[in-house]
């Protein structure tokens, strides 16, 4: 799975308690392990679902809430001023689609600390495939992944590593 460093700046969701460990590092590559608690996976899942619900079309059969106040609880989410049960919302949006968005948000927000590095093609690669990550992810359960950042040499590094002509 690939994520873009440029996506990190636009990410509105932040993960606060992710544990990121640098497993190996050299001049060309950094290999990381990222682990999240079950609480964090649940929080990110709910935020992503809420964001997707805001952009979803109106749902027939559900009346708009009067007053326009947002109401969120475990069994239903706010959807365009409409209370829709979470299970129904997941079915409507597609559970696999929601899970993909959640995993992408987790990757983008947890690796945001590394955005000051010059990463080759601005891409972060996970060791696991997208299908493996989807199979591992369950909201409310611990979740982890491995990532590789391929570093690009800056002009200063290239100049200092090449032999000087005298």
Automatic annotation (TrEMBL):
GO terms classed as biological process: 'de novo' cotranslational protein folding; protein transport; protein unfolding
Reactions catalysed according to its record: [protein]-peptidylproline (omega=180) = [protein]-peptidylproline (omega=0)
Domain of life: Eukaryota
UniProt-listed Gene3D superfamilies: Trigger factor ribosome-binding domain
Annotated GO MF terms: peptidyl-prolyl cis-trans isomerase activity; protein folding chaperone; ribosome binding
Keywords: Chaperone, Isomerase, Rotamase
Domain Trigger factor ribosome-binding bacterial: 20-151
A UniProt-annotated Pfam family: Trigger_N
KW Chaperone (keyword) present: yes
Assigned EC number: 5.2.1.8
Isomerase as UniProt keyword: yes
Family the UniProt entry places it in: Belongs to the FKBP-type PPIase family. Tig subfamily.
Function: Involved in protein export. Acts as a chaperone by maintaining the newly synthesized protein in an open conformation. Functions as a peptidyl-prolyl cis-trans isomerase.
Protein name: peptidylprolyl isomerase
Classification of source organism: Eukaryota, Viridiplantae, Streptophyta, Embryophyta, Tracheophyta
């Amino acid at each position: 799975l690939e994520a873009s460093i440029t996506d990190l700046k636009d990410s509105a969701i932040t993960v606060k308690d992710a544990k990121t460990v640098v497993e190996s590092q050299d001049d060309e590559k950094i290999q990381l392990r990222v682990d999240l608690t079950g609480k964090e996976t649940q929080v990110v899942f709910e935020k992503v679902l809420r964001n997707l619900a805001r952009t979803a079309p109106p749902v027939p059969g559900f009346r708009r809430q009067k007053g326009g106040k947002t109401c969120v609880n475990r069994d239903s989410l706010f959807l365009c001023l409409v209370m829709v049960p979470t299970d129904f919302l997941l079915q409507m949006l597609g559970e696999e689609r929601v899970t993909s968005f959640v995993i992408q948000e987790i990757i983008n927000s947890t690796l945001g600390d590394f955005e000051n590095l010059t990463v080759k093609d601005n891409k972060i690669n996970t060791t696991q495939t997208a299908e493996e990550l989807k199979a591992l992810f369950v909201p409310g359960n611990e979740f982890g992944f491995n990532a590789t950042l391929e570093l690009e040499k800056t002009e200063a590094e290239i100049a200092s590593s090449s032999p000087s002509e005298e």
